[in-house]
Structures
1.
Amino acid sequence: MLQLARWRVILVAVVTVLGLAFALPNFLPERARESLPPFMPRQAINLGLDLRGGSQLLLEIDTATLRRQQLDNIADQMASALRNAQPAIRYTGRGVVGDAARIRLVDPSQMTEARRALRDIARSPTGGNDIINFTENPDGLIEARITPVHLRELSRQAAQQSIEVIRRRIDPTGTAEVTIVRQGDERVIVQAPGVTDPQQLKDRIGQTALMTFHMVRDVDPADAAAGRLPPGAMLVQPYPDSGAAPEIVERRPRFTGERLTRANPSTDPQTNEFVLSFQLDSEGARIFCRITRENTGNRFAILLDNQVLTAPRINEPICGGSGQISGNFTAESANNLAVMLRAGALPAPLSVIDERTVDASLGRQAIESGGLASAVAALVTFVFMILAYGLFGVFACIALVVNLVLIVGAMSMIGAALTLPGIAGLILTIAMAVDANVLIYERMREEAAAGRGPALSIDAGFNRAMITIVDANLTTILAAMIMFQFGAGPVRGFAWTLSIGVITSVFTAVMVTQVLIAWWFRLVRPKQMPI
């Protein structure tokens, strides 16, 4: 008698029930979904931008700020190169004025030595042409300007880096089918399906989200009011709604948020206020411990995009590599800030030069056409399988229905978006879903033709066809993974739907069909195969 392990029956039953539960909300109106019991899933499949509309932003790199940042770094490099020269070259007036980084030699007669010390800064790290042009004055003033070619390359790199940061901010799970592509050297297009208000995107994208830690400078209030600040200090304003006060801090940060490995919203157990908990990597923890040990008793300010979040006093060295930041956060603001910090800082600010809400004028027609195509594909497959394999073809058709339910349930459960290419992947899955059944049934026919009984033929059909089934579907999964990794938008939608379909197809074609055939065999006890 055909033997079937009990765990297989339980697995098929549990997976099918879960698939029905997660797929059900897609066939109910909004009001009916809201009235479902609390233990029932309520999430339906997300439709992509081409099916339900959404928001689109055209962003542009702020090249002026990007150049200012680079010039500031160049000024630091110039000062470091002069300090490290043998012998050291004294300088003053380090800073950025207009489109140039400046530094002035105390002794203009050392211009030749300074030129030699600054020579390596002008060269590209990868070789090739100079990336900085130096000009010199007889009074010892040295100015450095970024070449136009290098500035264009910096803009191109900043746009490319911004794409991944934006994606992590607005689509941290990678399943929402957000399309983010570069346009030219300085622009980025962002398309988010289902987001009807572009302001939601701008709130997530608009901040550079660079966290820095600065020591607070004690300045007489009268001098601060008059704008008389000590060298190397700056006045920073509080972060909106943080409850902090303006502070005068060192211009150069002692520590930056690049060492953050974790940022999560939480609540302070003592005050019940929402705070932002963070964790540093091992090197960051070591540096932070040294800074807080050297400055115990002093205040340090935590800045986000050069605005004060909080400015506490260091009561003792902080060497655990973790901490929390307070700032009158709400649950939403703490979570949004955590998402931005986990995603990383933008290399340069982005300005919105165009925003629009995309109307899915063809979305309903596309869904109806896709539904019709799916129905036709399923009907043709049903007819073929029943004509080719009779009763066993009916079992394959039942498994195909279960397969469709599992695909819909899986996409609903993980929140994946369905796009037009995703519908194409669904139709392709329907057409390919029965190939495993064909392999199994043909193997059964061969075994029956060789004189084996029904039970042995059925066992051989499932066992000996598995290697071929796994090989065929594994290559499809690998191809889908490559498309998902290197594709964008529509390509990812197709790959995602195809991957889910392949997994559910193998499960239903092998497990569900096997359970149905085993039940039939025990009930009928056939003397010969019906195929």
2.
Amino acid sequence: MSLAVVRSRAPASGRAPEVTVEVHLANGLPSFSIVGLPDLEVRESRERVRAALQNCGFEFPVRRITVNLAPADLPKESGRFDLPIALGILAASAQIPVGALGEREFAGELSLTGALRPMRGAFAMACGAARSASAANAVVAARDLPELYLPAASAAEAALVPGVAVYGAADLPSLCAHLCGKSDERLAPVVAAPPERDRGGSAPPDMADVIGQQGARRALEVAAAGGHHVLMVGPPGAGKSMLAARLPSLLPPMTDDEALSSAALLSASAHGFSPADWRRRPFRAPHHSSSAAALVGGRNPPQPGEITLAHLGVLFLDELPEFDRHVLETLREPLEAGRITVSRAAQQVDFPAACQLVAAMNPCPCGWRGDPAGRCRCTPEIAARYLRKLSGPLLDRIDIQIELPALMPNELSARSSEIGEPSASIARRVEQARERQLDRQGKTNRELNGREIDELCQLDGAAELLLREASERFKWSARAYYRVLKVARTIADLAGVAMPKAAHIAEAIQYRRVFSSP
């Protein structure tokens, strides 16, 4: 047999589309060609595969070897195709039975000794295999589960995906022995239970660690309940970064679908996915020197950015005005739509970006504007120029904008006697409010459209009058007006009432006053 077909998958945007590796041996001058839009990493696999086969005691065919990676229009990257190419050569040269490959899928990078190195995208690949199997069969029996063969170091994360049998191999010889049916070399499917959170590690950040800032704590509770974006303005040391790091502890637990979606995106990215992070909402905090491509996605072929890696979690932008203005403006559409489309000449990819933005900034370049001790040396023009780095359309998309005061020495000295409310008790209220939203409209309040807001945020006379007067006084846009209604709807959900009242509208108005001008 001079032709072998091996199934694998490409790490494309967390979707892991199927790739068929076709290996053909022909007579003629010895050569080794790889076609099918491979990048440099894939083309270099020729040398890795040749050395690995020879060092493992296999015969490398002295023939004309052609490897086709189909479909031909899909860009192929990374060293994950080393293993399927090597198996295809062995099967085409009759060193392992072709029938052993069957419908199984393989991926892994080979070292020159034949050992299998860890690879990124293992979780995404397992999700793709499970989706393909479920699409082909309405009911999949346990014995008919698709089989996925990966490096042993990457098998644990893939085994978290239900509906797929994952096998981990340490090296090429042991995998080939398993495929040949040698009983003493048989591999067992990897069984990975979701790890216990923080077992043997440090405790996650908790709101009980935060001193004072009761107003900010309440604002974060409202933000977590409705999925609202937040901007915190305050002097250095007020606790902005500390509060932002604790927002994930207030969010409801991930559902099965959310956990799979988030882990697949992280797995296929350069960041990677660790089984220890299973069901944890991602928290991404890029530096203010990040480019637009790093923040929202780019490159060729298109790769996800930080806003996509924070999907279903939190994107924290510290020192917001220090980001390049052009970079910040690229956030407008994904913050509104929860998705972003990255287009290139030959390819267009739609990335999910339903994250919760939390931003922090100082009130002026020195950070001490408004300080009663008079430490600020910024002129009004310098402070205004600093704030003008944030455009009105971007600020319009941030639902909650709060100001944090500096902590007084007496507050710091009372730390041992004052313990704030822990995250667990706040999270219970948040989860109850989220359940009310999902039961009522099937999504968070932040995602409501205009028609749904009119239906679900009907106000009585006093509440409507208060909102109209605030809108006229602060000259809000239509978007800001509706976002205040959404926040009020969330405050009402936390209170367990059917419709927002004047008190809920008043609290929501307080969360839009930092950048409003009467």
3.
Amino acid sequence: MKKLFTSALLICSLLIACNNNGQTTSSSSGNDENNGAGSDKEKKISKRDRSITKENSYNDIFLDSSNLENFITSNKVPDSLSRRLRSFYNARNYQFAWFSTGGLTEQALTFWNIHNYEASTGDTSFKNAALQKKMDGIIEDSNFTVNASDKSMVNTELLLTENFIRYTLGNYEKGYVKRKEMERFVPIKKEDPIILADSLLNKKHKDEKYFENVNNAYKLLKDELSRYVNVSKKGGWQPITGDAKQFRKGSSSPAILLLKKRLQISGYMAAGDTSKNYNDSLVQGIQQAQKSFGYKPDGILGSSLLKDLNVSVEKRIENILINMNRMRWMPQEPAGRLILVNIPEFVLHFFDGKNKVFDMNVVVGKEGHNTMMFTGKLSTVVFSPYWNVPPSIVKKEIEPSIAKDANYLETHNMERTPDGGIRQKPGGDNSLGKVKFLFPNSFNIYFHDTPAKSLFNQDKRAYSHGCIRLSDPQKMAEYLLKDNSAWTTDKIVEAMNSGNEMFVKVKDPVPVFITYYTAWVDENGLLNFRDDIYMRDAVVMQKMFAAK
């Protein structure tokens, strides 16, 4: 039985005929009211929760219970799995789990990452060519929306749930994921965050087997959730008023004491310093807070850090809850190497089994050119690469520049290709730098070098058109090719500067897992928060938490 990937992440988502208030009625009679009474089989099926309506549900579309029964019959689903399916949808009042009217949910994307990762590691039970084709098409379609009456969409929904149940049963030791807990991997309805947190923190199991015991990253966040809930119940913290510029070493003011209290509450500095002076202990506390929020630890309070510190404890509890849910979709512990990129952190982490080999700063996609969350396998290193300019960039940026300057292509070391496209030749000013790393995917995203090295000095690094730029691509190439004696450091440097494009296969392709965590606990035990650069948290908050 596989164990969950336990590294503390630094770095892991009814009926169609509804009445006016969103309540539904069933067109099938056999399995909607299993309430725990009767046979052992019935006891293993959750009661249908009719309190869930379109107004309070996490997702806004529902399916008919007859759809599930038809799916079970036509696919000859075994009794043990069919009971799980009925229980799963009873708990949701037949609300879709993986889709809303807006398209794929975050949980669908993250589970599909896990699905593809498991399939790529040789688990043939996850290989379903028809489902793969359907999901690839959905993910690639930026205008995709859902029609709940579409039989194809209903079938895709139910196939995903079947795969999810099989995955969960096959990848967790027996007892560590209870049936009802499995049913809540995908949120069901809007809840008060404090009540939700209390239910997670106070739930007791007779067998003393808990999910956090097999998912350390989840456990570490759960411990922080407990701490932050206690802070909330004690009144939280006061906003720090004034401009960040007033906080300078040697100064003294009531605001400085307020800042110290704020840092002490979060554990960034030890309790006991009640002076109003900007002293060395405050500098150290600010440095710790800067590490927590992803800034250079220079001990100088900036306006961005002040803004972060003024976010309420209740909002931070919501951040933690959202990311605990994301932690449920961590990849399994690999037998070999794994590359994990956390988009909001702007950092790539390279693991070899349980051991972290190195971290590397990266630049990710800017707003409107988001780097996608997905799984791939890094299989090829390309030295001195051409840059085949994407058609969208050619249309929006290159062609208008050519219209203004007839020598634009020559000036920028570019040329037209036989098929009418444009590419930039290898060289020092090539936008991909001196090397790129391919892991085939439908989003045309890859790792690459860049001549714009100064961007890596920024704390927040969302500047690309979607691909991921590496701060030390030579180091990446050396590690990927270290098992190939022909590729010494000197040979790699020579190829990077040759000006002749060269493709080199990686002997053992490395899984790449691109994630989106805005809260996690690092290997030093420090709770980290990052900006919600693609507004994913904002979307989930509206779906997951009841309005106050």
